[in-house]
Input
Amino acid sequence: AQKITQTQPGMFVQEKEAVTLDCTYDTSDQSYGLFWYKQPSSGEMIFLIYQGSYDEQNATEGRYSLNFQKARKSANLVISASQLGDSAMYFCAMREWAGRRALTFGSGTRLQVQP
Amino acid sequence: GAVVSQHPSWVICKSGTSVKIECRSLDFQATTMFWYRQFPKQSLMLMATSNEGSKATYEQGVEKDKFLINHASLTLSTLTVTSAHPEDSSFYICSAGDWTVASSPLHFGNGTRLTVT
Output
């Protein structure tokens, strides 16, 4: 069974600073993908970044980077130069390629960026 | 632009009535779509997997007779909440992805906020 754990229910960060949102996962599969989504108060789910289990390099997408430590089964999201518009819920999710192929989500972290 | 369209974005209905929610993939053919439910301040919970041309697969604890799923075409899946009750009030969100690319994320509709009075 797969499981995603996000241990930070809420985080505060000052504008322009970097913040790390934690995510650990549990799977017995070798092939899987890790995703981060942002959910603003409007409810839409915005895809941010992807990391494949076989990817050797950490993924980066603009101000977002993923600190992937496979042996520790962690996939932390790093947001650099935080902006007020980054305030939202952030969900870590995983999909096993050999399974149902649905995403399983963590409980989320609410990030608030302070001016 | 949006690659998954969901309609309606919100609906209020009376207890005992049925509500249909549509989910369309706009840029690709989706043989599989997923329906999630989200309660306030909680995560997304998978309800069911919608398979084009066959029966949906429901997660444990989800009543298939209450949440009817139809996936009649490669671009459309519908979720019908039958005989809705106040406890069915929630945020329902569908998703689909292009399975030809492993790194392709699931794209989500904008969700439907259902309120049953």
Summary: The radius of gyration of chain A is 14 Å. Chain A touches chain B at residues 33, 35, 37, 42-45, 47, 50, 52, 91, 95, 97, 100-108 (CB under 8 Å). The CA atoms of residues 93 and 105 of chain A lie 4 Å apart.
